[in-house]
C-alpha cells in the first residue's frame, strides 16, 4: 500500500470513528443506559465504550458489533462507515492535510507573516 493510500485509510478510519462514536452516544443516551450498565450487558469495557463515544478508533470488530446489536444499530455500522469515508476520500481526492478538522491550524502559513511583523530586540 502506498503512503498516500495509508494516509487516506487513517483519515477514513478517524472520520468513521468520530461518526460511529456520535451514533453510539446518541443511542445510549436515548435508551438511558449508563456506561457501567452498557458494559455489563455487552461485555465491552467501560473505558472502551467511553473512548469509542469520544471518536477514538479503539475496540475490536466484535465489540463494535455487540454494542450496535444491543443499541439497535445494524451490526455492520462501523464497517459501512469506513467504506463510505474511503469512497468519499477517493471521489474528492482529498489528502489527509485537506481533511483536517476545522479546529486544526496550519502554523506554517503564519510563520512568515509573524516574522515580517515582529521585531526582535538586539541583545
UniProtKB/TrEMBL annotation:
<dbReference type="InterPro" id="IPR010982">
    <property type="entry name" value="Lambda_DNA-bd_dom_sf"/>
</dbReference>
<protein>
    <submittedName>
        <fullName>Helix-turn-helix domain-containing protein</fullName>
    </submittedName>
</protein>
<dbReference type="GO" id="GO:0003677">
    <property type="term" value="F:DNA binding"/>
</dbReference>
<dbReference type="Pfam" id="PF13560">
    <property type="entry name" value="HTH_31"/>
</dbReference>
<dbReference type="InterPro" id="IPR001387">
    <property type="entry name" value="Cro/C1-type_HTH"/>
</dbReference>
